[in-house]
């Protein structure tokens, strides 16, 4: 199986790229959903404090590749030649996926902090940061688990500083490379 790994900081636009793969009929697994599901399973509200706690506990108890290991069982349900993983955050997760995949391509999505903060506020998910300080703390936490290294190893980099429409167009062009 070929894996396409989508990485980037929160609010960079990973979901828009993942949507383009879905439209093309390529399955997508969202790593953040593992954390949100586990948070709910524990009876906790999926807010920034609780998702932070669950993410760190999973990695502490099951190792730095823990979230990726949860995704492998979901990967095994697909019989597609290509599957997308959205939201990889560490080299340990890359190693888990690399052991599983025949071929792996990492796509980094980048946007500046201010643009990402505005997007997260507009998105208004329960785990969205309520203010700039919480946003910065989340960014630093994401970087502390190794997200910057994954972004640095990207085979393809998309700069997403403008409109949703432009990102959708760029995403559709990227997806064509995998069809």
Topology:
Layout: E1 2-8, H1 14-23, E2 28-30, H2 31-41, H3 48-62, H4 66-75, E3 82-86, H5 91-100, E4 103-110, H6 113-123, H7 132-144, H8 147-152, E5 156-159, H9 164-176
Parallel strand pairs: 1-3, 1-4, 2-3, 4-5
Helix pairs in contact: 1-9, 2-3, 4-5
Question: Which terms summarize this structure?
Answer:
9 helices, 179 residues, five-stranded parallel beta sheet, Rossmann fold, 15% strand, single chain, globular, alpha/beta
Could you give a short account of the major beta sheet? Answer: 5 strands, parallel
Average pLDDT score: 94
Strand order of the largest sheet: 2-3-1-4-5
Q: How helix-rich are the residues, as a percent range? A: 55-70%
- Gap between N and C termini, in Å? 14 Å
Number of domains: 1
Helix-and-strand structural type = alpha/beta
Q: Please give the count of helices.
A: 9
The appropriate CATH architecture is 3-Layer(aba) Sandwich
Summarize the structure in words:
A five-stranded parallel β-sheet has the order 2-3-1-4-5, with helices on both faces. α1 packs across α9, α2 (31-41) crosses α3 and α4 packs parallel to α5 (91-100). The protein has helices at residues 14-23, 31-41, 48-62, 66-75, 91-100, 113-123, 132-144, 147-152, 164-176; strands at residues 2-8, 28-30, 82-86, 103-110, 156-159. It is 55% helix and 15% strand. The longest helix has 15 residues, at 48-62. The radius of gyration is 15 Å and the shape is globular. The chain has one domain (2-169): P-loop containing nucleotide triphosphate hydrolases (Rossmann fold), CATH 3.40.50. The two termini are 14 Å apart. By secondary structure, it is α/β, with parallel strands linked by helices. It has nine helices and five strands; from the N terminus they run βαβαααβαβαααβα. The model has no long low-confidence stretch (mean pLDDT 94).
